[in-house]
Known about the structure:
Strand order of the largest sheet: 1-2-3-4-5-7-6
Strand content: 25-35%
Oligomer: single chain
Helix content: 25-40%
Shape: globular
Amino acid sequence: MSTWTIEAEPVSGAGVEDAVRQYLTEMGLRVLGRAATEAEMRAVLAKDPHDDLGPPGGAFLVARGEDGEFLGCAGVRLMAGVADTAELKRMFVRPAGRGAGLGRGLLLAAEEAARALGATRVVCETNTQLTEARGLYAKHGYEETEPYDGHGKADHWFAKALG
């Protein structure tokens, strides 16, 4: 799959809930070493909801294939109490969209959305097991930084100044 479009969509749009569940399932398998239970998924979404990944303080970007298939997503939201800083959230590429540069495309689109929100800096958190994410961030100018008050069980935090 090498043809897609990336556009802002409502975080409640078609395919989003299914993709978020797939994302949480994969994170459970990779980070916990087992499938996340339904109760764990609900707890994650309760602690770190994504309903603020939309206007006025956020944006939710969806990548779709030529046939409208949901291939991936990335959200950004301005961080409360942290001047000019946006947080990258829910970055996920479904298996059907992997290997064709879609992660890079979503990351660059998320940075552009953060700039449009007035951010001059983007932060994100991830885990040791997510080597692809850590590699992508490093390749695009993100540097490891001190932990910030995030929402997950991260063990790596990144920041990038937006030019």
